Amino acid sequence: xxxxxxxxxxxxxxxxxxxxxxxxxxxxxxxxxxxxxxxxxxxxxxxxxxxxxxxxxxxxxxxxxxxxxxxxxxxxxxxxxxxxxxxxxxxxxxxxxxxxxxxxxxxxxxxxxxxxxxxxxxxxxxxxxxxxxxxxxxxxxxxxxxxxxxxxxxxxx
Length: 157
Description:
Layout: E1 8-14, E2 16-17, E3 20-28, E4 31-35, E5 38-40, H1 47-59, E6 61-78, E7 81-98, E8 108-115, H2 116-120, H3 130-139
Parallel strand pairs: 1-7
Antiparallel strand pairs: 1-5, 2-3, 3-4, 3-8, 6-7
């Protein structure tokens, strides 16, 4: 029997304030990389809920998604394994206050605010090309209603 192929479903937050974007620096198998606050969709949650959770875990900031920036499909080579395909839902929204008592998620070294020019100058350090692609789509004004992603009540099951 052939194994069924399934992409990894991830979420990402595109957060801009005063011309700077909130990124995380994280440990990966390929060394320290820059990424949007992002992570995997967990069982029982919607992509927007996952984005809120992942942003809090990786940055200590509360985040409320207000719009979908885009849905992205990419295949990322791995240094020691077969390439992985990701289906990424990127959201923009409202950033709340950080929780100074909260520790950052395992693997996250720090958060940082970077300009678009600084991010473009750091493309070799980006975890994936989707980091910059999501930001550029956000800057191009791409916004879709959260209701575009329909989650049946059965997922909470």
